[in-house]
Amino acid sequence: MHNLPPYATRELIYERLPLIFPEGTANRGYMIREMAASAIFTMMYIGAVAGNETYIGPIYICRMTNEQAALAEDSDRTTYKLNVTKKSFRPIGINWYADNTREPIRDETLREGLVQIGAVISLKNLPTTSSKPRYALQKSFSELFNPELSGEELNKQLEDWRETNLSNSARTRIFLANRSSQSSLDKVLITFPNGEARNVSSRPSSDISKAVIEVFAQTFLINPTVLWLSTSDEKVDFFDEHIASRLGLKIQADKNLPDLILVDLGRSAPLFVFVEVVATDGAITERRQDAIYKLTDSAGFNRQDIAFVTAYMDKQTSGFKKTISGVAWKSFAWFVSEPDKIVVFQDSPLSLVEIIKNFTLDNEKNF
Question: Could you give all domains of the chain from N- to C-terminal order, each with its CATH number?
């Protein structure tokens, strides 16, 4: 009989999951909820760990009970493994999940969550429709739930696992989503493209504004400058009236203006980029797009030199999920956690090949 991993309670597993998968991890919600802890507990409980040739399916998780989970002896754990799929087997207590909960366990927690990140392995030689058990924990991942780990030793093992097992892009997403604002308790320090540093009020959207100016502008624009920055409905933190006047753009505080206006002066004609920062609400909608066009039309600018961007912290945030349906066509979406990528909302009947050709950056810093 294969050795079972050290017994760890579901509560301990649940507590450690947010430490293993910090903010910015793709599909994090699937992997830190109680259902994920239940799945990991059950795999640990019966020894479904890579190398043990033991696997589970969703039914193993559904039929677990609090009473069964409290039986920590190896003999109890082995009995559950051998009998859980038998129709006659009924562990003491109430099942953790109804049998019809197998779908979210399989599709969300496992396939889209723990399997995608590499924490769980899945047998490849089984048909997709097969009901046979196919999932097991990656061995090094299972070791993160050893109850004897604590303090610096635990933190070091968590860090080592993330460094080894999360891809470069995933680590980048986590780093950028959690990076320090380099701020005091009530201020965020933003460095403008010209090197000027300015403190703005600390709000949920301030870190996104900081990333737009320090990262987005440098990534996608040739010679960016900040024309307008506002971190709240009541306060304009920065307005370069000199440049606005030289360009003939008459800007006044208005509910239709976005949080940021960037100008790319590295083109033959200036490119105006109107950026709405979304922490909870307020995407660039068609109504706001039309209102901004009136402003730029009156200044005599060609609409092909106007761009609209809605900036989010991450695709997993509630702000993105709440506002994505209202984002206007002929605009872009950008995520702090994936700084080298941009989403295009195209409204013309171009073929996919033409869209890719038109919007592939090819390392050129422009739209």
Answer: 10-177 (1.10.10.1820), 187-359 (3.40.1350.80)
